[in-house]
Design goal:
Elements (H helix, E strand, L loop, with lengths): L1 E2 L7 H16 L5 E4 L5 H11 L6 H8 L1 H16 L4 E4 L6 E3 L8 E4 L2 H8 L3 E5 L2 E4 L4 E4 L5 H11 L5 E5 L20 E3 H9 L7 H10 L3 E5 L11 E4 L12 E17 L4 H11 L7 E3 L7 E9 L3 H10 L1 H4 L3 E14 L9 H11 L6 E5 L2 E7 L3 H11 L7
Parallel strand pairs: 1-2, 1-9, 2-6, 3-6, 9-11, 10-12
Antiparallel strand pairs: 4-5, 7-8, 11-12, 13-15, 13-16, 14-15, 16-18, 17-18
The protein binds aspartic acid and magnesium ion.
Aspartic acid binds next to α6.
Amino acid sequence: MKFGGTSVANVERIRNVAAHVKREVDAEHEVAVVVSAMAGKTNELVAWCKEAGSHFDNAEYDAVVASGELVTAGLLALVLKDIGLNARSWQGWQIPLLTDDAHGSARVTKVDGSQLGECLRRGEIAVVAGFQGLHGPTNRVTTLGRGGSDTSAVALAAAIGADRCDIYTDVDGVYTTDPRVVPKARRLDKVSFEEMLEMASLGAKVLQVRSVEVAMVHKVRLYVRSSFDDPADPKLGTLICDEEDILEQQIVTGIAFSRDEAQITLREVADKPGVAAAIFGPLAEANINVDMIIQVVSEDSTTTDITFTVPHADFARAKEIIEAGRDAIGYARLNGAEDVVKISAIGVGMRSHSGVAARAFKALAAKGINIRAITTSEIKFSMLIDEAYTELAVRTLHSLYGLDARP
Ligand code: ASP
Ligand code: MG
């Protein structure tokens, strides 16, 4: 069982979490619980690190930000004891949950589930601090990136061979799109790992992307469910599972969107070998993730236009890098746009149906929405449009593919 920040936001909420845990223990399950920091805590710790000075050190950053989860793990163990259950807290290094040394966004390399397993067999509930691990060779605490306690939970579930991994959050499952934008959004009963991976990567914030990767590789049955349900009578939420376990497959399962995008266009770039490398090599070296790339076929075969997108936070840095490389690249003008949004439709059914994206282009055109860029892959397509049209575009696609809840 994993509980997110809003589910453990204060001691009263932690008591509610304990009631969910007790229900599973009473049903004779052996339970390991992973907790996040109290809502807002990690942001506060991150801000303190920034305030603390110019000698920014990622290892010390991790030492600070990992502390939020230590508090909630200890508190939940206390509350569980208070209601007569046997429990103890575990910090990441005590398990140990081992990671690489990429402080701030470390990857899990190995989880030794043996000590935890013994604890569970003794009838003791294990309450584990999420988000954190240990880099063995340097003996330092690491963290798994924002939202990383989802990944802690899935990695732990895989390591102890759990029957399932329940991710408790403040919504009761995975929706066809963000219900705040589309009131007719529906909760999905089942989503395949692949679709969930795309949804999470393309903007759905319910799970950390890496947690879905780990679940897919280790085939961990994952439920997203609400801690705000009555602990005595909770719903099961959304199951994330293998494609084969989903009988009624829709062509499009969900619409995701991300406002975290910016567009850069280089005009009149020389159309010759090595130009793309001159643009994207330096961006890659600066760890800037380029997403959509479009190169126009030039008419006179001397110059062309290249458009690409980067995360909004990297827009200024990307522009600087391109401008610094202007001589090597050779272009006439650089245009940028920050008020853009990427809208994506996801569904494994696209593999076997043609014309799925074409219907979207037509529907958006009918609403007067201009598409700036398009990318496709096997089970999704994405379109970059002006941010002002976000709601309209998402609602249009949601209806188009039959995802609206029936009244
Ligand atoms: N507390 C961490 C964060 O806010 C990890 C998590 O909640 O998953 O990012
Ligand atoms: Mg989260």
